[in-house]
Specification:
Layout (H helix, E strand, L loop, with lengths): L1 E3 L2 E3 L4 H14 L21 E3 L19 E3 L19 E3 L19 E3 L19 E3 L22 E3 L11 H8 L5 E2 L2 E2 L2 H10 L1 H33 L9 H6 L4 H6 L3 H74 L3 H85 L9 H6 L3 H73 L2
Parallel strand pairs: 3-4, 4-5, 5-6, 6-7, 7-8, 8-9
Antiparallel strand pairs: 1-2, 9-10
Helix pairs in contact: 2-3, 7-8, 8-10
């Protein structure tokens, strides 16, 4: 514990969190159904609600395991910065009122958030809430928001129907209520009061022309955003399929970048015609590869989704069987405990405890055997996925290599024909038979045979290098994706298995402790 501004501040660590959960459960036993209130047995990932108000917390921390948390109260603390909430993806309610926060930030991951309370802080700008598309209630009373146009940021939230701005400088503006009613037609409550139809109509009339202009601007911005998102989605799809920028002449044009001699050669009429044919043929091959790439990507996605469907079913079946075993055991356990408490004969108690000991061992063996059955089942379906994906990737890689081989053949053919044209042009140059209309820079190039031949050789090498580079990039990435996919699945399954085995042993240890307590009480 530290001191700040005359107040004791509390470190937000696992001990504080466990204590808060225990207190919460004791105050309302129904709130955390089925929770065994012992610190070592609390699973943060299962907690749905957490109240941490009035604890002099300075920094939000140690919340990364609360992945199921839906409601979080951190009001009446000393918090200065919104942080440490990235893993709380299921949060729908967040109360940070009565703190010392100066900036809205750190909320990007809270896409399910519906209620956000930031009242009684030091915030002057409403910002950084773009991902909170589901927000319905926003409270920011008693902050430092000064201008009405600063509130317009909230217009993007179509589900928002309750706003509280009371106590901000902006709420003292003469037109405050009409302005808000006009610019937020879907708003039901402002500063805890209903917005009546009379106020809304008056506001609509007063701000009619300004609103129409704003709506037009917002529509244009929305259309531009949708177009950008659509383009980004398309590029992502192409990238995920490893065929980005193969749907056109991108590769072809990249082959001739930074090649001034090539540009000069293209001014020769015969070369220009060859180049046009070469480009058409290259683009056709790239488009063929692009279409195959998208189709193969779709097949891979279907295969992976099918795997995850099978994996989830296997785990759910396992969980159901494990739950049945535990339910049966716990039902019998209650009877055994009642029976033991009623026995006074030491010899009989010893027999019963030994029997109880055997039952615990049997439970441990049953749960462990069930877990290993699941492990074997998952190993089989992971192996099947590996084989199927490896076949897909292998076949796709062969197709890719075949198409790029055709691209190299096209380049070889183009280079050979250009060389013949260059030799013929050099001969005409020597005989002074060049076309008089030929550009001066072309004539200048053909005054030196070595320069022409070197330019052709360099261009040919560069073109092949671009083709080879794109082929290597595609094949390397698709194979790396396959390796990462299988390794990721295996690592995740190994982690799940270890956690499950740990859970079994922890539960069995708890049963041993119970048994020891029973023995102690009968001594």
């Amino acid at each position: 514990m530290t001191r700040r501004c005359g107040k004791s501040t509390m470190l937000m660590d696992e001990e504080i969190l466990q204590k808060a959960i225990v207190e919460q459960a004791e105050q309302d036993p129904q709130d955390q159904a089925g929770l065994i209130v012992k610190a070592e047995e609390i699973h943060f990932s299962e907690i749905l609600k957490l109240r941490l108000e009035y604890r002099n917390i300075l920094i939000i921390d140690h919340l990364w395991e609360f992945t199921s948390l839906a409601k979080l109260d951190l009001n009446h603390n000393l918090i200065e910065k919104i942080e440490g909430l990235d893993r709380l993806i299921n949060l729908t309610w967040l109360n940070l009122s009565f703190n010392s926060i100066e900036k809205i930030e750190g909320l990007e991951s809270l896409r399910k958030l519906e209620v956000l309370n930031l009242s009684n802080n030091r915030i002057s700008v409403i910002e950084n809430m773009d991902t909170l598309e589901k927000i319905t209630h926003f409270f920011i009373a008693n902050n430092l928001i000064e201008k009405l146009d600063r509130v317009l940021y909230l217009r993007k939230f179509k589900n928002l129907f309750t706003v509280n701005l009371f106590g901000n400088p902006v709420s003292k503006e003469d037109d405050y209520k009409l302005f808000i009613a006009a610019y937020f037609p879907n708003l039901v409550c402002l500063d805890y009061r209903l917005l009546d139809e009379k106020t809304k109509n008056e506001a609509s009339i007063k701000y009619h022309y300004v609103l129409e202009e704003m709506k037009r601007e917002e529509l244009l911005m929305q259309q531009a955003d949708e177009a950008e998102q659509s383009q980004e989605s398309e590029v992502k799809l192409h990238t995920d399929a490893f065929v980005e920028f193969l749907n056109g002449s991108y590769l072809f044009k990249s082959m001739f970048e930074d090649d001034p001699e090539a540009e000069t050669l293209h001014c020769v009429p015969e070369v220009a015609n060859l180049l046009q044919t070469f480009e058409h043929q290259m683009v056709a091959l790239c488009m063929q590869l692009f279409e195959i790439g998208l189709a193969e990507h779709k097949r891979r996605v279907t295969e992976v989704n099918s795997f995850f469907g099978g994996q989830n079913k296997a785990v759910m079946d396992y969980q159901q069987k494990a739950s049945e075993i535990l339910a049966n055991f716990e039902q019998e356990q209650k009877k055994r405990i009642v029976e033991l408490k009623q026995i006074s004969d030491p010899d009989l108690i010893k027999i019963k405890i030994n029997h109880y000991n055997d039952e615990i061992n049997q439970l441990c063996n049953s749960l462990t055997a069930l877990e290993f059955q699941l492990v074997n089942q998952l190993e089989d379906i992971i192996k099947k996925l590996d084989i199927n994906i490896s076949d897909m990737v292998g076949n796709f890689s062969e197709t890719v290599q075949g198409i790029f081989a055709q691209c190299r053949d096209l380049e070889d053919n183009y280079n050979e024909k250009v060389r013949k044209i260059a030799v013929a042009t050099l001969e005409n140059m020597a005989k002074d038979k060049l076309d008089k209309d030929m550009p001066d820079d072309v004539k200048m190039l053909f005054t030196d045979k070595d320069t022409v031949m070197d330019a052709l050789t360099t261009g040919h090498d560069n073109h092949l290098q671009k083709i080879n580079g794109r082929e290597t990039q595609l094949v390397t990435r698709v194979n790396a994706w396959k390796v990462a996919l299988i390794k990721g699945i295996q690592d995740k399954e190994l982690k799940r298995n270890r956690m499950r085995i740990s859970d079994i042993h922890r539960y069995v240890d708890h049963l041993w402790e119970q048994l020891e307590e029973l023995q102690y009480h009968h001594l």
